[in-house]
């Protein structure tokens, strides 16, 4: 079972992603509504992979990842960003930060699990 931490402020996207990932039977999903929520819960959950929304109020996905990387137990956990604004320059910046992949919104719920597993197996 792959332990996945999903950080997303949009309730509809959280619901769709959770359903899509759990139906495969490959993922145990913990969802957080904000970067701060993720910081509070991530270390205890000990995820195998983190999926972070880029645009969130309070703390962006990039800021959240930077803070999560300060936790020794999370510094090497693969991180995948989800964004509706997948510009080439931004993709390069996210990969330079250590993102394993960037998934564009809207995403395909049927292939989401496979995209995440592929990113874990072949980090960018």
Automatic annotation (TrEMBL):
Domain called Response regulatory: residue spans: 3-120
Keyword ATP-binding listed: no
Keyword Transcription regulation: no
Pfam families registered for this protein in UniProt: Response_reg
Protein's UniProt name: Response regulator
Organism of origin: Sulfitobacter aestuarii
Domain of life from the UniProt record: Bacteria
SMART domains reported in the protein's UniProt record: REC (SM00448)
Keyword set, alphabetical order: Phosphoprotein
């Amino acid at each position: 079972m792959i332990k996945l931490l999903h950080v997303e402020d949009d309730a509809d996207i959280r619901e769709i992603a959770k359903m899509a990932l759990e139906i495969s039977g490959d993922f145990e999903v913990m969802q957080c509504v904000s970067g701060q929520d993720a910081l509070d819960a991530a270390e205890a959950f000990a995820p195998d992979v983190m999926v972070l929304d880029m645009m969130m109020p309070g703390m962006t996905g990039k800021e959240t990842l930077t803070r999560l990387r300060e936790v020794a137990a999370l510094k090497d956990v693969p991180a995948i960003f989800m964004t509706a604004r997948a510009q080439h320059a931004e993709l390069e910046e996210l990969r330079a930060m250590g993102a394993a992949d960037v998934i564009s919104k809207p995403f395909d719920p049927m292939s989401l699990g496979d995209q995440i597993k592929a990113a874990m197996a072949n980090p960018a």
